[in-house]
Predict the 3D structure of the following.
Amino acid sequence: MKQPILYSFRRCPYAMRARLALAATGSTVELREVVLREKPEHMLEVSPKGTVPVLILENDHVLEESRDIMEWALDNSDKEGWLDFSENEVEAMNALIDESDGPFKAALDAYKYASRDDTIDTTQERGIGADFMKKLDAMLEGQAYLFGDKFSFADGAILPFVRQFAHVDRDWFWSQDWNNTIRWLEAFLESERFKAIMSKYSQWKAGDEGVAFGG
Ligand SMILES: N[C@@H](CCC(=O)N[C@@H](CS)C(=O)NCC(=O)O)C(=O)O
């Protein structure tokens, strides 16, 4: 049976958020693990911009933005209620994800690569990230997740990037006083859902059958 095809890369936070949403909605796809240095021709044919994740639907429609993939999955079956919030809350979620994907991700990349480029001011970039961590920490005060006691679209979209930020310098991150953010991140890292989306697969090559993912 033809299934949607997901080009994915295990460690990519954008691909992680797509896999989280696919798993949370019970969507089943054929996962093709990509090595970014050797992107499959077929992936580049359908999505010349060359980023993962890419989801090719059964009708050949191509989704090449991680948020679109999340939304497609949630439109199908939001059985965990990731978007079961008021209109205002969903608007606030989207604004928070914009901030995460925009200024926070830019600072995260600069902070991450600072060791290789001495024109980057590590402290300044890390500081921008730290401000975002503090904002999340305030939102997480007295509640398990960003928008209450239920995991939401915003948690799924943002957590993979917070993980990446934390992993640049673990000792530093874990010694900061954003205890709510740390507790939220740790719960995510220890969750069965996270483990399930971080399975290791070998590189997909043309002609291979991909791996059945989700469901
Ligand atoms: N806006 C895209 C960004 C995806 C993205 O930048 N993915 C990275 C990997 S984490 C990528 O594929 N980069 C291309 C490369 O490294 O060649 C999305 O949300 O899906």
